[in-house]
Design brief:
13 helices, 5-stranded parallel sheet, 7-stranded mixed sheet, disordered N terminus, alpha/beta, 448 residues, single chain
Length: 448
């Protein structure tokens, strides 16, 4: 057979075919396994979040976003980047178990804030707040109250996908409660004022409670927050009063637990705290009016206390200096609750109640101030190591995420912070975090 002169020779055609195959291989190839990124952190002192005594001069080996192992001494390995923190104290990334990333900023006029800022304003404000929280050393947070669940889930997702900087988030969406309680944002306003999101905060009756929990699960919430007692920064209610019925609390707890969601209960009054604990909530937020019998019950039931001292500390100062910025009765309630909460935290700790740290910060004191909570806990009588556990291992346990966060241990995320000095001597060094790593990625490195 003879080839026509206007057709390419076989060798040339074969070369074209192979060229096309090569191009296709580049365009459509299945990626091979990525090369692991190996890091070694030299820690001069390691406090690992378990409550164990600190370890001196150890190396933390990291592959990609997880911790491989912790070994004595300062080691090196071919191909591994060494991060020298040999003159600093290394801890797990901190966890704040009570934040409100999307609640706006306390500017003094809460009614104006409520009626002049929509969900988009709140979401845009939350972006720099999330970054500031991360740079303060908080690599995980539990957001327990926003007006809109999809907004909170969107923020969580954007952080998880790396589109914005911020801590890992577990979100509740709105805080649920009965009409005329703290979740009823229309209380004290013109009855003709309305907002499309406000009805979604209310649960009246067990059936309504079950339905709302299921809706939040569908919208992507991780946990449920309820108002079992009246509030302090709310109009027309009493923090000592129990405002949810047992049937409503039980319906929330049973439905949430069936769906794999934990329940955080805002509860100031003694009766509210004890009812919520008996009915199976996972944590009590605030817990202001507890006593010895209350703490014995919490210990027996394994209910965790999240004390939130920072919010009352700052707002008590405001109530003393400029009470007029608060709505009716708010300043008076704050002046009573503030000192009581700090005193009772020490009593709860001595009674053996399990404690997780939460600041309740929502922008009124400037972003990234979460660490001030830990110093206030020490001032209240909780030893520094127990405070560190409250902000690391205990918090991770309450999240249901102990396999991932809260401790420096093999298999956990490489969430690490470093501080100058010894937080067991001066806990307030955690207010000046110089190094932050989240999932093996350094997000802050301000070291001398």
């Amino acid at each position: 057979m003879r080839w026509r002169s206007d057709r390419p020779a076989p060798t040339l055609r074969i070369r074209w075919v192979w060229a096309l195959v090569a191009v296709a291989a580049v365009l459509f190839a299945v990626p091979g396994p990525a090369v692991a990124k190996d890091l070694i952190v030299h820690a001069g002192r390691l406090i690992d979040g378990t409550g164990a005594p600190p370890r001196a001069d150890v190396s933390i080996e990291i592959r990609d976003d997880r911790i491989l192992r912790i070994v004595p001494g300062f080691i090196t390995r071919d191909g591994a980047e060494v991060i020298d923190l040999s003159r600093r104290t290394v801890l797990p990334g901190l966890i704040d178990m009570h934040v409100h990333m999307l609640m706006g900023h306390f500017g003094g006029d809460q009614v104006r804030e409520l009626v002049s800022n929509g969900v988009y304003d709140r979401l845009l404000r939350a972006v720099p707040q999330a970054r500031a929280t991360l740079l303060a050393g908080y690599t995980s947070v539990r957001d327990v109250g926003s007006i809109d669940a999809p907004m909170a889930v969107a923020l969580k997702r954007a952080i998880a996908e790396g589109r914005i900087e911020g801590p890992r988030m577990w979100v509740s969406g709105p805080s649920l409660g009965p009409t005329a309680g703290p979740s009823d944002l229309s209380t004290g306003l013109d009855p003709d004022l309305a907002h499309q999101h406000w009805p979604g905060l209310l649960i009246d009756g067990a059936d309504a409670a079950r339905h709302r929990v299921r809706l939040l699960k569908r919208q992507g919430a991780d946990l449920i927050k309820i108002y079992v007692s009246g509030g302090v920064l709310s109009v027309g209610d009493n923090p000592k009063a129990t405002i949810m019925t047992d049937d409503e609390i039980r319906a929330v707890v049973e439905t949430a637990h069936t769906l794999g969601m934990r329940v955080a209960a805002h509860a100031h009054g003694k009766d509210a705290i004890e009812r919520a604990s008996r009915l199976g909530v996972d944590s009590i937020e605030h817990g202001s009016y507890g006593d010895e019998a209350t703490y014995a019950l919490l210990r027996k039931n394994g209910t965790v206390l999240v004390p939130t001292l920072l919010v009352v500390h700052r707002l008590t100062e405001t109530a003393r200096k400029t009470p007029e910025v608060f709505g009716p009765t708010m300043a008076e309630k704050m002046l009573e609750v503030g000192p009581l909460m700090a005193r009772n935290l020490g009593a709860a700790y001595r009674a053996g109640v399990r404690i997780a740290a939460g600041s309740d910060i929502f922008g009124f004191d400037g972003d990234g101030q979460n660490g001030v909570e830990l110093g206030l806990m020490v001032d209240a009588g909780v030893p520094p190591m127990a405070v560190i556990q409250a902000a690391t291992g205990n918090a991770a346990d309450l999240l249901g995420a102990a396999a991932d966060v809260g401790r420096v241990a093999p298999g956990r995320y490489a969430d690490l912070i470093a501080v100058d000095g010894d937080p067991l001597v001066d806990i307030r060094v955690v207010e000046r975090v110089g190094f932050v790593m989240k999932g093996g990625v350094i997000v802050k490195r301000q070291l001398d």
